[in-house]
């Protein structure tokens, strides 16, 4: 049997655009979503519409869990028979235990897998995979590609505007007082995944309009000082707001490519509905 060169493994926290969805060498391991005793598989048996309906109307807060090492054992065992090598790119190890499950699965299966910590999530993973495709096309070995992607991961920039405080409150990440004051004063938290792959709070902006301008100015500043070719706008059930943000960015930066996508259900659980994020890699 002829083996193919590189299998690419990602988890469902990634933004799975058309290219990744249709690529024959990309494999997706789903995270799990929990409402009380009920468990759902991200992207398989719970649609984003169903998720937001549950978040809005349910009394139990949603939670997520990483895939098991056993799921990775099964996948890596299968792929090792079909491919020369495997590269896995996962949600930041500072945000999820998915990377650990992947490493454990590879060890149990006795399969050499180059696991790359994206230090990000969503379109951050997407950008690394697309960069990996380019390097593969240049003929680099899978070890060289993985090494290059680990460097590329440090060039990630992101600003995340939390759209609805309710989910943060339900999930225990806001106290009752913080939730009440934030809602009353229309405070919009801006958070970021830092260069260690961990979430940190950056700012609190009064009003949605000012928060949108904040995002636009961050994109402009990076474009002018660091060099940016592509920006991803990710949204949680807020497509019209995402389109308006894209128009506003391209009005200021006509040469900049801007792509819109929806964040996965496993991320929407934490960020909440109407969240908007701008994400990109610098040169």
From TrEMBL:
GO molecular function terms listed in the Swiss-Prot or TrEMBL record: lipid binding
Keywords, sorted A to Z: Lipid-binding
Pfam families, per the entry: DegV
InterPro entries referenced in this protein's UniProt entry, alphabetically: DegV, DegV_C, DegV_domain_contain
Matches recorded under Gene3D superfamilies: 3.30.1180.10, 3.40.50.10170
Protein name: DegV family protein
């Amino acid at each position: 049997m002829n083996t193919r060169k590189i299998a690419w493994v990602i988890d469902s926290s990634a933004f799975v655009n058309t290219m990744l969805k249709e690529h024959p060498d990309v494999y997706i391991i789903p995270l799990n979503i929990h409402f009380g005793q009920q468990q759902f598989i991200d992207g398989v048996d719970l649609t984003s519409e169903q998720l937001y309906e549950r978040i809005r109307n349910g009394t139990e807060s949603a939670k997520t869990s990483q895939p098991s090492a056993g799921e990775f054992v099964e996948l890596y065992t299968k792929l090792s028979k079909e491919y020369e090598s495997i590269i896995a790119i996962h949600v930041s190890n500072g945000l999820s235990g998915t990377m650990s499950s992947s490493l454990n699965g590879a060890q149990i299966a006795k399969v050499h897998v180059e696991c790359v910590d994206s230090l990000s999530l969503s379109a951050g993973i997407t950008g690394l995979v697309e960069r990996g495709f380019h390097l593969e096309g240049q003929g680099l070995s899978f070890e060289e590609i993985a090494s290059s992607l680990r460097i590329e991961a440090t060039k990630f920039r992101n600003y995340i505007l939390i759209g609805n405080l309710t989910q943060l409150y339900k999930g225990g990440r806001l106290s009752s007082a913080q939730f009440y004051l934030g809602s009353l004063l229309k405070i919009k938290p801006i958070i970021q995944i830092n260069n260690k792959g961990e979430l940190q709070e950056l700012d609190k902006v009064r009003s949605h309009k000012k928060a949108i301008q904040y995002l636009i100015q961050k994109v402009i500043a990076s474009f002018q000082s660091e060099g940016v070719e592509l920006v991803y706008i990710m949204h949680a059930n807020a497509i019209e707001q995402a389109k308006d943000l894209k128009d506003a960015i391209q009005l200021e930066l006509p040469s900049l490519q801007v792509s819109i996508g929806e964040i996965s259900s496993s991320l929407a659980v934490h960020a909440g509905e109407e969240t908007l994020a701008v994400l990109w890699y610098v040169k």
